[in-house]
Amino acid sequence: MEDTATSWSNSDENDVETCIFCLIANKKDENTKIIKETKDLVCFSDIFPCAPHHYLVIPRQHILSCLSLHKGHIDLVERMAKLGKDVLHDQGITDMTDIRLGFHQLPFISVGHLHLHVLAPASQISKYMLYKFIPETNRFVTEEVLRKRLKSISPPLQYHYLENCKLFQCISCAQTGL
Q: Which PROSITE patterns match (predicted)?
C-alpha cells in the first residue's frame, strides 16, 4: 500500500505547473533565493515580511493547505517546524520563546500550497499585520496546535479496482481480506 502521508495531495498536474511555490521548490523561479532545503522541504524569505525575520517553509510536494492534512502528516509538520527553527538559528536568533510558527487556513491563504510562516521576533511583528498572525484564530493556527489536531484526522480512504470482479475495494479491506 502507498504511504498516504507522502503520496496524497489534492491537486492536479495544472496546479503543480502553475503554482509559484512549486516553481520555487523545483528551482524554476529565478527571483527567489532558497535559504535552506532538505530532500522534501524548502525555506525562503517571505516577499512581504511582517517581522525582521519572516520565512516560509514549504514541502516540495504540492499540498493545498493545512486543511488537506491528516495524522500521516504529523511528521511533515514537525520537519517543517524544525527547518524553520534551524533557519532562525542560522540567522542568529537565539530567543526561541519570541518566535511564531504557524499556518494560515482557508480562505485566508494567499498561495494554494502548504506553507509554514516562521516569524521572529514575534514581539516585532508589524502592528499593521499582527491580525494575520494571531494564534488559534480561524485565520492562523500554530504548528503545535495543528500537530495535536491532526492526531484525530484519519487519512482518506483509497480505493483500487479489482480486475476479476470489476468492483472497487477499499485498500484497508483488501489488506484484511474483507
A: HIT_2
